[in-house]
Structures are given as C-alpha cells and as structure tokens.
Amino acid sequence: MRILRNRRQAGEWVYSTTSSTSCSSSGHSCDSPTEPAFRHVGRHSTGFHVWRVEHLQVVTVPRDQWGTFHDGDSYLLFASSERDQPAGPHTRAREVRGAPLEQHVHVWVGGAAGPDESGAAAYKASELDEALGGRCVLHRELQGFESTRFLAYFKHVGIRVLKGSVSSVGAAEPSASLAALAGGSRLFRVSGRPGRRCPVVTELPSVAWRHFSSGGVFIVSTPHALMLWMGRYAAAAERLQAAQVAAAMRDEGQPRALVLVDEGREVLLPADKFSLMTEALDPRRAALEVHHSPPPSHGAHGLDALDLERAKDRPRVTLYHCADKDDTCMVTEVKSGPLDHSDLSHSDSYIVDRGSVGVWVWLGRLVGERDRVEAMRNAQGFVRKKGYAAHTPITRVTDGCEPAEFRCLFRTWHAAAPVAKSSKTKAKSATTVHTRLDALALRDSPRLAADLRLLDDGSGDARLWRVSRAGLVGVAARRAGRLHSGECYVLHYRYGHPPQHAIFYWLGRTSSGERQATAALWASEKGREVADESGCEAIIVRVLEDREPPSLRAIFKGRLAVLSGEAPPGDDSSSGLPASFLLRVDGSQTYDTRSVQVPRRPSSLRSSSVFVLRSKRAGWFLWCGRSSTGDEREMAKRVATSAGGADLIVVYEGQEKDDFWVALGGPSLAVEEYAVEAKEIEEDSAGHQDTRPARLYACLGASSSAFAVEELPNVSQEELCPDEILILDARDTIFVWIGRNASREARQKATNLAIEYLKTDPASRELDTTIVLLRQGHEPPMFTGFFNSWDPHMWNDYQSFDEVRANLEGRPIPNLSQQSQADLPCIREFEDQDKFPLQLLLDPDISHLPHTVDVFRKELHLTHSDFMSVFGMDYPTFAQLPLWRQHSLKKTAGLF
C-alpha cells in the first residue's frame, strides 16, 4: 500500500522539528524557545495540564475550567504518571527518579474547529513531545469519539462541550459551572452508558423538539428551571448519569426548579411544571417533532451502531511494516492474527490495525527522524486509504514506552531485557513465601493473596463430588485430590472467619460436553444452596484440567493428582489407582503442586520435573530430574505417600539402574529416546517475564444477544458499579464481578460473558483460562488485592436511578434493611422468568424443556395461578421456607 503525502487536510497532523535536546539537562522542566506555556512541564515529573489553541497560540486553561471544551476550538491535554498508574486533574506534580513514567499527550479537536486550529494543536503536541524526549504517547481525540482514557480523566464530573469558540464568544464564557449559563434557554444532550463514568454534556444548536430523540436524555436550561427529559429507549446508565448532572446543575449558582419528564408525558405534567416547560418549549409539540424512531435492537442495553461495529472488530489485529521512500510511505502487511513482541524490530516502524477499534503506530527506538516526523500523518493516510471512518482513533507509541492497552494486544510481551531466574533463585524465593504463608497473612495482605491467586492456606473444610448421570456422587476423603480426566467434579470449600464459601467445578479434558454442562449447573445449584442456608454468596470457579489455580491446589495441600480416563467403579471403597502408573509432579509448595499421569515410558521423563513411578512388580520409585529442586522432591514424596507409596526408591537422573528402566517399561534403546527428548524440552524452556498488569472491562449489552466490552483505564474500586457486570483480566484468571443490581439475564450469562471475552481477545487467549464468578460484597482478598485500596462500605451510599429520581422529586424512598435488599432480586426473579404450562414443566425428560428453563428451579416458570394451585402459597412465602422444605414440596409436586 502506498500513502502519498500531499497538501494538508483539515485535522492533518503537523510535526514540529524541534530538537529533542531542548529540555534542560536537569529534566525538571522544558526549556522550549518557542512555547513558554510548556515551561512548567517536567520530563521526569508527574502532572496534569490543559491548554487551548487561541489565534494559533497555546493558552493555559485554568484549573476550574478543566473539563469544559468549545466545539469550535482545539485543545492539548498532558497527563504524566508512574507507569500503569492512573492520572487526572488530581495528579500532584512531583519529580520521579528511578521509576519509569507514562506520559500521554492528547489533541482534542472540536467538531466545528477549523484546519488551522487543529493543525496548530497537532504541531504544538509534537513540539511538547520532542521537548520531553519524543517518548510520549500521542492521541488524536475527535469530539464525540473520545477515547476511554481521555474520558477517564474526568470521570464523575464529566466533560462539557459548549457551542462556538472562545475567540468568538469572549474569554468570560468558558466556565466549569453549567449553571452559569442560565442567562437564556439552552439545550444539552447527556451521553453516558455502562462502563463510562464520565457523562458527556453537549450543547445543541437550539432549543427545539427536533433535536430530541427517543434514545437519548436531554437537559433544558432556562433562567427559572431545569428540565430533564428522558427518551423511552434511553439506557438506564444514561438516565442515572443525566440525573446526577441535572442535580449538580441545580445545586450550582442561583436556585432553580428541577422537572423530570418522561417521553410521552409532557402534556400530563402538573400545571406549575407545565408552565415552566413552556418557557422554552411547547409540550404539545413533543409528540409531533421528537425523533421517535426506535434505536437498534441493542440500544436499550447501552450499545449503539459504533459499539456493535467495534465489537465485531475486537478480535481483529493486523501488523503492517512502514518504510519511507522518497515522498511515499510504503505499507506492507506482515501478519494477521495473534501478534508477538518479537514481531517488532527496534529499527523499524509499524502500524497495528484494529479496524474501527483504532489504529496504532509503533516507532522502534532506532528509527530515523523522518519516520518520527511523519508517523501520525502516515497513520491518517492509512485510515483514509483503508476507507475507515474519519473518527477512527489513532495513537502513536514508542519503543519501551507502550501503555498497557497496547501491550495487551500481543500474545506475548516481555520486559526490555529477558528475565531468567535460576532454579535455585526460584526455589529460594518460593521458600521465603512459604514460611510466611498462612490464612491470617493472606487476609491481612490482599496484594499477596492476589499475586499468589489464593483464597487462604487450604486449611478450610472441603467436600468433593463427582458428576454422574444420576446426579452428584460423593468422593471419599481417602480419594480426595485424585481427579480423572474423563470426569467432572464439584467441590465446596468453606474457609475463614466469618465463614466464606467457594464452589469449584473441575472439567476433565476428555469428559463429554454434556457432563461439563451438567457440572456447571450443579455448581450454580450448590451456590444457591449456600446462599439460602448461610446468606453468603459463594464465589463460583470454573477450572479446566491442566489449568488448576493455586486456590484449588492449596485445598488438596499438594496432593492434587490427575489420572487418565474415567473413574473406576467402586468409587468409595477402592483406591482408584491403577496397578502401574507414572506421575509427573510439578511444584514446590502446597499451593502450586499438581501431579498428572503420563504414559509409562522413558520419553515421558524430563529434567525439570520429579516423577513418581509405581510398578506392580518392582514397587515404588521417585525419579529426580537434574534441574529439580529439593522442595520439588519433597512435594513429590508427599504425593507418593498419599498414593500409598512406601519404601520409595529414590533415583537421580543419570544414575538409573536396569530395574528402574524395566519398571518404566523400556529397554536400553529407550534411554537414548529420553535423552534426546529431554534435551529438546530443556532448550525450549527459556522465556521472558510478562510485565502486563491486570485490566478492567465493563460488559456492554450483557443482557442482550450482543456483547461488547469497554476497557476502564483505571483498576479502581470506584469503577465497580452495582448495576453492571465487569471483568478483571489477570491473564491466568478471569474474574467476573457481578453487581448487586445486575439484571437476571446478565447474571445467568456471566460465565459465557467471560468465555466470549476470551474468544474475542486479539491476543488469542486460551479458552481453558480459569474463570471466577463473584458477587458484590463477597469479594475475596485474591480479588481485592488487585486494587490499590478497598473499602467494603463504599457502596453503602450508592443510589440507583429510581432512588435518585425519588430524591430529586421529593418522594420518600422505601427504607429496606440490608437483608431485605439482598432478598429483593431473588423475589423479583419469579416475575422475570419465562412462564410455561404446568404439564410441560412436569416432563421428567429435561431435553424436552425450552432452553430458557432452569431445570433446578422449575417452580420459577409457573404462572402465579399454577404456583398457588401446586404449592398452596405464593412465591414470596415459598421463598422464605427452609431449603429442605422447598425440596420436599417440589418432589411431591414432581418439579424437583
């Protein structure tokens, strides 16, 4: 692909040629001879600054005006923080030495800004970047299509986009207080949605019904009143954020009345409110002039056409190589699909294309000056050449200064230099943790629990079941920890004080899809039983064979063993072990050790592991690879002992005798096969350290057939909204956080949301990644430890839209106790469920039932009259009965 550089177009990026050596040697501030406004920006300092372009000059925006923009102007925004840490208006300016900084420069271009203003902003952005060493992340932000990072700077307070330009309306106009605009009637649209904590308030051209639509929320401001008008298709999150904005506007400046209006009820307002509305609009014209066309089918769930397009493009990622030749940029496709860090060369520049999601430009540290100068213009030319929308996000990053959202596009990413710890170093580190690890330490140090992925030290009570066609079959304590690859299991773990609960369901690699689905259903049922019996919401953990997390391994205290095939008959009486077998044992502590049955032949051995060999004739052997550690050997001995191994014969690699090889089933020729294979494995064992942090995503459209996610740049508890479902991606574990007010449909789809997230990750993630479902208010330390701070009482003052509306309208809010609030979603479930005839639900063959029927709770699908007829009581009364009594009544009715 050729990209020709010709005359500059509106919004074209223009680069400064200021030398990168223009900063003072101290690095404390810029010493640019061309732009005094940047003099307070330090190369090695954190901070936050906003500038506006006026008459092609950069003017500092006062702090009290941050977040207010004019659509006829262009702005520069600079944010600097320690790497992977949040930044914003509250970031304190301080010098940082010895730690890498992450510096972002955003160019915001208003929808009515001319090419001169936008070009000047781009030029000044490049000048600032060069003054700071040319290592900033550069963003192009177009009005209405701002990046989530940009919006996150102004979360809660929101951004305001006013009409016109400061140069045309006067310097007194830009005020952070929207109430200050009450001199006349004005119309604003409030844009918000799940996952976006920053409402965007945009002033519209005039106060007229033709600007209203059924899918939006609008505020009409007059000298005497504020009117909040809500379209019938507006998303719940948008209504809530608009109500909060309206309340803030009412409380600023001169007191004014606040009127809430639902679409279609304009003429039904009380006389006093009707009179206030007529100051700006004729309520009788609303039905005729409002844009009533319903939005796309997913609009009610907060998704618009762009969200759906980006959701479709989310898995997409293509790497292009850029080469400059004469006055042309030659762009050549390198590869599609999952990318690796090794695909990038320090001496080249690249474009990472994600379609409507955005375009990234990456510059190697050894590229020439011309590549740096033309990078953003090349990307803009690429967007035009590909026929993408003009608002497609464009971001430039440099080698070694990539933000987390770029690094996580790659399947593998390593630090600047490979990190290789010797086995001795690793063992020493692990031993140090082991000596300090106990339940109290994990409770008091959530960061440690998160790093180790542990619930506790495994000292709680566990009960294990095997999933069969007939239901759950209890596994005897003597066999606990021996799982079969052809089976599925459910484990209930009770730990801590006060007691907490976790339900694991383990899916064997060769088990059937039907059995795996049944295991998931049983795990959910066990979770409901725990909630009914104890009032505590259990976390639900999906675990696939070979991906067992430390939290599960710790429960078995290092004795977790995965055996081939299905469980033998006589589950409760026999040992369940074959007469001869070979186990590979990996791990050095109780919380990271697992063993797996491998083929009993020499080629299964490898130098980095310890193996337990049982021969029906020769007895028990412990084979220790030359790279194994003492701790690993001790854990292997524990595994052998738990399996019944006595009088172990310890064999070290290279010192094997003939009786060992005979027990392993191989003659002398097999020794050569082992030696070759072990060498290949050892040569492939080197790796790099993955430095990518955990990421937080809001699930959009979780209640609909569509699915999209939006990344929240800050991993903060404040981002966890009780109305939503969020995903915390910790690489080897996906946490799905379920808000207390999340819809029934979204709660039921929680696991599927995580799987869909993995499927659409451009980094080509493994679908067997551990998935943890957890409910608001019941978060274990291994989850809260990912957050810088955690306040269990943070949500006490949270108000839903209905509660906010009641406050604004002066109506009383029902005073529900905490317990009744927790029970309310369960009671509402009966009304929310699909209803079916009683005879259909009585069919014992569940394959005949509609797919929406919860086979464990068929009673929820009865009509109210059928429920009364069958049980002689209504559902709220039934729900208060003890669980054993509910089960008894359901069995009698044939619904169990």
TrEMBL record:
GO cellular component terms, A-Z: actin cytoskeleton; cytoplasm
Coiled-coil blocks: none
Domain HP stretches: 830-896
Keywords: Actin capping, Actin-binding, Repeat
Keyword NADP: no
Gene Ontology molecular-function annotations: actin filament binding; phosphatidylinositol-4,5-bisphosphate binding
Biological process according to GO: actin filament severing; actin polymerization or depolymerization; barbed-end actin filament capping
SUPFAM superfamilies with a match to the protein in the record: Actin depolymerizing proteins, VHP, Villin headpiece domain
Top-rank taxon, per record: Eukaryota
Family annotation (PANTHER family): VILLIN, VILLIN-LIKE PROTEIN QUAIL
Family listed: Belongs to the villin/gelsolin family.
Protein name per UniProt: Villin-1-like isoform X2
